[in-house]
Amino acid sequence: MLITEMRKTRHLALRVAALALASALPVATAATAAAQDFEFTLEAGVACDFALHVEGTGDNRIMREFTDEDGNVVRLLSAGKGFDLTFTNLSTSETVELPSNGSVMRTTINADGTETVENTGHNVLILFPTDVPAGPSTTLYVGRLVYTVDLNTGVFTLQSTSGPTTDICALLT
After folding, report:
1. C-beta of residue 4 within 8 angstroms of C-beta of residue 130
2. For the segment 30-80, what is each residue's pLDDT rounded down to a tens digit?
3. Of 16, 64, 113, 168, which one has the greatest count of Cβ atoms within 10 A?
4. What domain count does the chain have?
């Protein structure tokens, strides 16, 4: 599968899962969003220069969905302690574990087929070679992180950051 299709599929699957959970709720009401644990592997050159395995456990976030007067979803809000993450360099078996420290994600659904995502707190962003700026990179951001996602192509475009960053790939080499 092409990297852009893999990214698009993964992003859309996460979005659909979030919407499915949120759509069962009245507008602007909250519910615990205990997502299932996950794991996946990205081949060398996609997220780091080496094959990267990622595992996430213990999600405990609250999600809200906001709609316009016609019932269209226009914003999503997710807050709380997300997943504990484990990153593994499959070439060396070196691992980095990041406990969940909490974050807030505000997603605005734009009319042009993009989403604008603003994260605050502790968040990891994986940029593929097809993203802007081009990856591979896997970075922990502590502070504020803003990016857009083109839902048609799956391309992520980093808009702005503030606060310290940690290069997960560098920690694993």
Report:
1. yes
2. 344 456 899 999 999 999 999 999 999 999 899 999 999 999 999 999 999
3. 168
4. 1
